Amino acid sequence: MSSKKVLKELNQAVKFLQKQNKHTPQVGVVLGSGLSNFTGEIEIEKEIAYEKIPHFPISTVEGHKSKMIFGKLGGKRVVAMAGRFHFYEGYDIRDVIFPIRVMKLLGIETLLLSNAAGSVNPEYKVGDLMIINDHIGLFTPNPLIGKNVDELGPRFPDMSEPYKQKLIQKAKDIALANNYAVREGVYVAVTGPTFETRAEYKALLTLGADVVGMSTVQEAIVANHMGLDVFAMSVVTDIGIREDHSIITHEEVLEAARHAEPRLATIFKELIAAI
Fold first, then answer.
1. pLDDT averages per 10-residue partition of the chain, 275 residues
2. How would CATH label the architecture of 3-274?
3. What does each C-alpha distance from 150 to 97, 110, 136, 155, 180 come to in angstroms?
4. Global pTM?
């Protein structure tokens, strides 16, 4: 796709949303599987179904509500995606990251990402919250492959600090103040939709991963490309290598995410207020 067409489609989506909501959001939030009830924390001003937004794909995954929400949270104007898009759904990688670019052009300066992830680190347990301090994205397509859109960011963006340390420290302080135990580690992204084999979990652990999931990394790359500050947190919803050899189900992932959601919501809400 040409740069001109990319910008045209982005501008059409942005103009449509600006007509629906007159306020400029400061913070964007992307909610992962089983975490969309977080929108109950937002003082909602406008909800817009993805299917109504020009050039937006529609999430097909259970646990994603497929709507964009504008409102207030923590004293800030926010825009939240209740449902994200995944490469495994069959979308072009440009569709996956399209909403991130739209949120940037709407005016956000900070992006908060959440996801449900499987544990690779043997010390982690279901229900743990992990602040992502780095990622491994070698197993998924890089969303910046192809002709660079210079108006959106540089050809070779720096990724030495993909998740802002200042936001990580604020989140750790918030967790401590609320007596929440949080992990901090590395997220590795895979394409999915299969859960990993036992051998793959072991290989990812050797590479330095703490959790594994099927999202987030492409969004973080594009956000950094466009100059956004990024914070991301995983909810550990399943254990990769189980001694009892039981299987992992999506229903189990959703249930674990819902159970951990109130703690994640508190951290996100207070972090937004502190930005």
1. 91 96 96 79 94 85 75 95 90 94 98 94 93 97 95 97 98 98 97 92 95 97 98 90 63 78 92 96
2. 3-Layer(aba) Sandwich (3.40)
3. 16, 21, 25, 7, 42
4. 0.94
